[in-house]
Design brief:
The chain is mainly β and 176 residues long. It has a domain of 98 residues. 13% of the residues lie in helices and 39% in strands. It has three helices and 14 strands. Strands 1, 2, 3, 4, 5, 6, 7, 8, 9, 10, 11, 12, 13 and 14 form a 14-stranded parallel sheet that branches. It is globular, with a radius of gyration of 33 Å. The C terminus is likely disordered.
Length: 176
Amino acid sequence: MALWKETAKTSATEMPEAMDLARPRIPETKPEAPTPVQPAFHPMPSPAPGKPKAESLIAPDITIEGKIEGAGHVRIAGSFKGDVNVRGDLTIEAGAKVTGSVRAEKVTIAGELIGNIESAAHVELQQSGALTGDLKAGSLSVAAGSRMRGQAEFGWDDAKDSNSAYKTHGHDGPAS
């Protein structure tokens, strides 16, 4: 009978179970997903907690007109005309000129700012610095020799003060 000999001639690809009987069973492991490869240049990395924020620089020989927004620190050594709104620090170098309103965590002025500082945790006006405009900040440092023309409000917490005004007068709000 030739039937039993033909089944012995079948290849391992046709009957994988026959080959597996001789080998001990090894549990299958899933291959790990490949880790994504980071590009060599990432234009706007998101800051991770605990890592320092990146700093952008406008060089001394550069003049830019527009708007600056985002997270990170900005250092201006040239000339910038427009509004600056950053979740980081703004530094205006000696010899630099900025014309526009500013919102930043910390503002350091060694050059010239013509415009209002609308919101800052701290403002530092250095010896060579000049500010023409109003300023609202949590704290203010002024060096001898610096110049300012405008109004300055610092050390006030507007949210607290507006609520406490009612309570100090015995009011919880408007009378009904």
